[in-house]
């Protein structure tokens, strides 16, 4: 559950507490380019769930805000996209990519509609 409250120029997010981190922040998914923590499996009905999720704090040296709960496949794809597409596009403008703001990450939902329950 996520609620957004806006007051003037400030916004605050209220969300369910994330699962506790069982492992310290460090390399994940067998890659030094991916930094975060392994999480316990996420169970869900039907096709929902992740056997080996990670909470990703950095991908290819880029800070993720907020950290993203993803699969290792998604983490690798994000790092590749940042390296091959985003970083060169930012560099072409004379800038340097330091952080990527994220709107969301793993969520369990049905293929054709409502969230799995």
Describe this structure in words.
The structure is a single chain. Strand 7 and strand 8 form a beta hairpin. The chain is α+β, with helices and mostly antiparallel strands. The protein has one helix at residues 72-92, and strands spanning 2-7, 10-15, 26-28, 31-38, 42-43, 49-50, 54-59, 62-70, 99-101. The strands form 3 sheets. It has a 5-stranded mixed β-sheet with strand order 3-4-7-8-9, with helices on one face.
List the helices and strands and how they pair.
Blueprint: E1 2-7, E2 10-15, E3 26-28, E4 31-38, E5 42-43, E6 49-50, E7 54-59, E8 62-70, H1 72-92, E9 99-101
Parallel strand pairs: 8-9
Antiparallel strand pairs: 1-2, 3-4, 4-7, 5-6, 7-8
What's this, in brief?
It contains 1 helix and 9 strands, in the order ββββββββαβ. It has one helix at residues 72-92, and strands at residues 2-7, 10-15, 26-28, 31-38, 42-43, 49-50, 54-59, 62-70, 99-101.
Radius of gyration: 16 Å
Which ranges are low-confidence, i.e. pLDDT below 50, for 5 or more consecutive residues?
1-16
Q: Helical content, roughly?
A: 10-25%
Mean pLDDT: 79
Major beta sheet summary: 5 strands, mixed
According to DSSP, the number of beta strands is: 9
Number of helices: 1
Order of helices and strands: EEEEEEEEHE
């Amino acid at each position: 559950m996520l609620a957004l409250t806006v007051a003037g120029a400030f916004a605050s997010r209220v969300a369910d507490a994330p699962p506790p981190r069982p492992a310290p922040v460090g390399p994940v998914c067998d890659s030094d380019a991916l930094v975060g923590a392994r999480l316990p499996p996420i169970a869900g009905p039907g096709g929902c769930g992740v056997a080996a999720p990670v909470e990703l704090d950095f991908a290819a040296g880029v800070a993720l805000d907020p950290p993203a709960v993803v699969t290792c496949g998604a983490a690798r794809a994000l790092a590749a996209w940042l390296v091959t597409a985003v970083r060169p596009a930012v560099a072409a403008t004379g800038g340097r990519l330091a952080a990527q703001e994220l709107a969301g990450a793993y969520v369990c939902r049905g293929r054709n509609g409502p969230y799995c329950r």
